[in-house]
Queue: 2 jobs
Job 1
Amino acid sequence: MKRVWNAIKSECAGANVEKTRFENVACELQEIVFSFTREETLNAIQKIGVIPESFGRDSTEEKLFAKTSDLVLARALSFLGFSVEVCRRRGDFADVVAESKRFGYKLAADAKSFRLSRTAKNQKDYKVTALNSWRINAVADFAVLVAPYFQYPTKESQIYRQALEANVCLASWETLFLLLANNVEESERLNLSRYWAFQSDLAARVPVAESKRSFLNESASALCEIADLSSEKWSETLAVFRAVVGKQGSDEIERLTKEIEKIKVLTREEAIEALIEKTKYRENIKTIRAYLKKIGATV
């Protein structure tokens, strides 16, 4: 992932970039990620679920990180036996569309990453119902959401009911890691469509009163059975990710603590200048002036 971080940071340098440049960087990232070996992809999967706090919210860096998560998802699916396409279409369409090379069915998939500082788990963040619409638009057989396992709601949530009603597979970076780490790939004996359709089977058994409870553990158990993996493999995978997220969290806390200490020793003038820089008001003024000049308007 080091090449990915370098590409994002060197191109953005903390500022927004124009659309054409963004697309060029996105193409560069695709070339990098699509060249990943299985081991490099496993390494990327471990880290892609957490958005670095150093990337500003709604910044170009954050948007390119989101694009990278789509690419990592696509690369992972390619190792499972899928031909993949990362879509550039805007609006009501899935970010990743994949087709099983052996069985011919299609997936409409969406990748999610979150900050460790995230608190509220809003159902809109997961876009479960939107995924169902994207599946229809992509003429796909299944819809799949891939998000960090530990960022799914632990208690009852509307997203679980939505997934059951719309047959949206709530997968995770951890489940992808489980499959790739154990060299799972579709074959004459293994059709992963049983996993992508797990919610549909579960919906027939779950009473309406219980439809908002988490079924992630049941889904993981079903995947282990389908892929002929032991439950211990799933436990080992979760342990790996707990360690990785723990390290990411420790690094973020250390970095943020150092930033606090830097702020404490700023002079009044330095603090004001740092605040102005952070708001990007100067960049906004420059952009507005350029637009007004372009259309011949005066201030």
Job 2
Amino acid sequence: MPIRPGLPVNLGPAVNSPYDEISPFLARDGRTLYFSSNRTESMGGLDVFKTVFEEGKKAWQPATNMGTPVNSPGNDESFRFAEDGRTAFMASDRLDSYGERDLYIVYMKEAAPEQQYDAASMLFAVTDKVEPAAEAAEQRQFSIPAILYDNDRDLLSPDNQKILDSVAVIGRNFPTPVILVTVHTDETGPAKFDLYYGIKRAEIVGKALVDRGISSSRIVLRSAGPGYPLAKNVLDAAPNPVGARLNRRAEISFVLPADALPFSFRLERPAVSELMAAPGMKYFDGLGAGLSYRVEVATTRQILTNDALSMFDDMMIESQPGSGSYRYTAGWFAQHDKAVQLRKDLVQQGFAEATVVAFLNGLRISKAEAVGLLKKFPDLTAYIRG
């Protein structure tokens, strides 16, 4: 029995324009659409554009120009990925073509993540009942392993590249949550160096996600240094290389400051035996959930070497991809008044700019944002008053 097609549905102004939109290609993930258009943002005639369907909002992102070298001052159309996602084919009448439209092959630096996964479900059916679709989105489950490393090169090993591809796919499909990248280190020397090397490694991971289409504004980078070990670095008074290896990790999670995620997410950490387990990560996870306070000691563009900071074993650095700015914080408190006391101590030690910062689920919130959250978190009153 023949299948009856549904009526065509316009994809709306985020995709379409008053000009021509032609040669659509939907990637294997069922959410990433390529097409050509001669709209005003094009470089020449027809340019290849890309848009991603936001599953949470049930809407398309505004289309973006693929730029050079895919596009040219000529007409570029019929862009199609090969099955492996590493090569694409297209037609163009650019200057080096033999006649009118010639066929070209495009070699990608990395496999396109959207071509690595088959669509999980039908997204674009028209229906009067939207609740089942929303419920299905909420029930989606994702699990991301921790990224283990021995050196900086290991962060982008083939196995870790696959993890980053998966994170990017989730991030593009659900554009609301913040992506939190936290690097933990083992103890290799003075904590100030481990802490700094940790944020530099977080920057490598952050750049890899930006290169995969995640906006840098959605990514928060953190270095916890050696302060919160998963495993013991020393066992029976001797160095424990297995524990040190487990402590060298980059962990990626999806976070919303005050709302539930639109999907179920689990971070996979390596298993640790009872004999080798250290309590640091339980403490870290407990304080990172819900409302907490830290004291921002200083903001700098280089390593902070002040010896007065050596008394803190809970120092952290925060940054964002491409910013080059490092925010050093100390302490971690459930009560605002304890953070205020630490701030006073730091001011007496010469850190005149020290200030209390509030965090929700590991994400810092400004005082302006805190005002809108007062009903849910009354303890923010003291933070707002300062």
